Amino acid sequence: MFIIIAASPWDLVAKPQKIKLTGTCNEKIVVSIGETGRKEVISALPYILEVDKNDLPLRLKFSSDNFIYYDIDIPKKPFDTTGHVYLVKINENFMPLYGRESNQSNNQMMPAPVNSDSNTYEGIDKSRGINKAPVTNLKANKTLALIISNENYEIAANVENATNDGLAFKEYCLCTLGIPQENIIHATNLSYGRMKKAIKDILGIADMMSGEANLIIYYAGHGIPDNNTKDAFLMPIDADGTDTEVCLSLNSLYSNINNCDLNLCIVFLDACFSGAQRGGDMIVAARGVKLKPKETAPNGKTIVFSATSGDEAAFSHKEEEHGLFTYFLLKKLQDSKGKTTLGELAEYIKENVGLESRRINKAAQTPTIIVSSALESSWKRLTLTK
Prior knowledge:
Mean pLDDT: 83
Number of helices: 6
Distance between the termini: 91 Å
Structural class: alpha/beta
CATH class of the largest domain: Alpha Beta
CATH architecture of the largest domain: 3-Layer(aba) Sandwich
Number of domains: 2
Low-confidence stretches: 1-6, 94-122, 284-289
Strand order of the largest sheet: 9-8-10-14-15-18
Largest sheet: 6 strands, mixed
Strand content: 15-25%
CATH topology of the largest domain: Rossmann fold
Order of helices and strands: EEEEEEEHEHEHEEEEHEEEEHHE
């Protein structure tokens, strides 16, 4: 007599191994799981990963916009009776891009390139042609850059592709404009307090350069007008658009810049201040109608490139996964390899954003350039870096 025992297909599949990651998480972290090609996004800890037992041992690699983390090696058997439990830790040998409270010198630092030969940095998708910043021989040791991209809002709608905008602009600052890593603060998804601190930190560094610094400030995210005064504000991720007291006033920003000892400040704002989102809908649905904000004029030696005029919306270029304004800003830097005057840059952005918005969005988007009175006669001949 023969007895045949048939195994269920489920018995032939290895049981998943649970790996618990613990610690403190104040940002989104991407974890790459061994050689499997699999990645998961962690937004809160503790977090449970499940892997095939047959894949053990393996290494977990972590990446984010703000920190470099230690790798974690997962053996076949746990180290002790607690099972596979591991602490996600920041590598203190590398300072953050930005994103935690620390002293001024730390906030200046950026992590090292993933591949220094190719000038490729984590988080930037080089498969898209616009993200391939030309590597030049420009050296801008006296230029500083503050890059803020607010995409993931806690209460209001998110800003499509703002993170991509900031990452790409940072790449162009490094590779094309020749701004040193230590001269850049790059920050994503900032609260009101962190936005104020980032601005204070970069201006503090600039003040130490005895009037020789060129400063570039780039912002992608929501802008909002005050209902009563029509003054314009930058919107942190912990605001909902109804209360400008917890938003960053452009008047205040320009005043702080003017109080700093600078050679030149150039501000890029991929935001609108009518109360609209990148898709054209309203940030605050109850408001229902776009407002025409006051034009906020800078003082001193400041030039502002703004994505819109009046009550227009700042649209996204969905095909390119960037804000429309940012896409053409990058395109001009790419085509000119960074060797463009501000006048040439202004004309290129205005012409191409206006045309492309009519073509793909069927709506007007008219970038504006606002120049302080001290630079009215000379700004077109100036360049981005020093």
